[in-house]
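Q: What structure does this chain adopt?
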Amino acid sequence: MTIRKTITPAVATVITSALLVSLTGCGMISSVMEQDRVDYRGAKKASKLDVPPDLTQLEKDNRYAVPEGRGVASASTYRVPAGQAAPVAAGGQAVGPVSSEAMRVERAGNQRWLVVNQTPEQLWPKLKQFWADNGFTVATESATTGVMETEWAENRAKIPQDIIRRSIGKVFDGLYGTGERDKFRTRLERSPNGGTEVYISHRGAEEVLVGPQKETTTWTVRPNDPGLEAQFLAKLMASLSGAPEVKTAQTAVAAAVAAPEHAKLVGSTVEVDEGFDRAWRRVGLALDRVGFTVEDRDRVQGVYFVRYVDPDLAAKEGFLKKLF
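A:
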């Protein structure tokens, strides 16, 4: 599969470089997997008015909307066989835990995903419960397209737990924050054998000081964290199997054998040496990771239509300014 640039040179360079890095993989996550460093359950649930104002444009992300009446397929759309109804959330059907033999982790570069021998319909309610158990509120969900996305949340495990923090935090917990927010998107792809591929992608934001005197703050996009993606993939694996201990799942995720990296930059294109179906999904995940908005796509022609939002142009007032 060849990815061609059909946009302005400056933006195309950004997209091509980001895609190349994401497709080939360039980071180690084993150190992150060594310890559980996430705690979103301790974060207070924010009201709609407390959503970081600089992130509101991300909430309107329409990348997975399915165009109607155009015969256009989405990277995240289920591969539904002819004559079969589109997947819907399971309605009250009890489904037991998934055995470890019925799950495996596959890997391509720094991208990992879970392959489960259950249908998307069976997994859907479990995924929703999984995110709730880990302290997240599901912001958007579409069983038809197989996409579930959480609200922004703060990883409280990153707040230093010194004696001052422990003492004051008991009374004024809101005074302490990480200045970071995370959200996760879960995407399901139906496998030809009836199973499901589960992808988890991370998006991050951080609050930074701006202005001549650094007198105000604004929220900006920060790079995605493959370590967090792998960690939640391990947590999901443990959750689906009903195991209380995630260490075994973490080992399985970290030890997943990487597929050969066959993505390279050739002139104005990125060449991916894989079959079309796999390359299409990987490009969709890569675009999702680097924060570009997919406004439309045509799977038959192999075309994604993306929009690049310059964070500097979208900057607005931050939390600190609203407090005074």
